[in-house]
Amino acid sequence: MLLISRRYTRISEITISLKNQGEEAYKPKEYGKSIVITRKFTKDGSSSWKIKSKDGKVVSTKRDELSAICDHMNIQVDNPMNVLSQGEYLMHICVFDFMSKFT
């Protein structure tokens, strides 16, 4: 994952690359062996998507295509536990459990 952000910039960008191989690959003829997803945020609150093939060719800019990719790969974006390692998950749970004793 690549996150580009500077304190006084007007645009931030995050890019992730998903492996897209094997029998369960999502549209392998269009995307190839990986799917590159870039989301750009602007200071005024707008954002845009680019979903690219491994070669860098923009295949889609639609949120619906991103939702279809996530559904196909069973990625639950709204669940942060999906992207944490086991160690990070345990640390996260311990911190919240510890902090709940004081609230």
What does it look like?
The protein is of the alpha+beta class. It has one domain. Helices cover 29% and strands 29% of the residues. It has 3 helices and 5 strands; from the N terminus they run E-E-H-E-E-E-H-H. The protein has helices at residues 28-31, 63-73, 86-100, and strands at residues 2-4, 11-19, 34-42, 47-52, 58-60. The protein has a 5-stranded antiparallel beta sheet with strand order 1-2-3-4-5. Strand 1 (2-4) and strand 2 form a beta hairpin. The protein is flat and about 45 Å long. The mean pLDDT is 80.
What's the number of structural domains? 1
Number of strands: 5
Choose one word for the global shape.
flat
How helical, in percent, are the residues?
25-40%
> Class by helix and strand content?
alpha+beta
Proportion of residues in β-strands: 25-35%
Uncertain residue ranges: none
With helices defined by DSSP (H or I, 4 residues minimum), what is the helix count? 3
Span between N and C termini? 34 Å
Q: What is the N-to-C succession of helices and strands?
A: EEHEEEHH
Adjacency order of strands in the biggest sheet? 1-2-3-4-5
**Mind summarizing the main beta sheet?**
5 strands, antiparallel
**Average predicted confidence as pLDDT:** 80
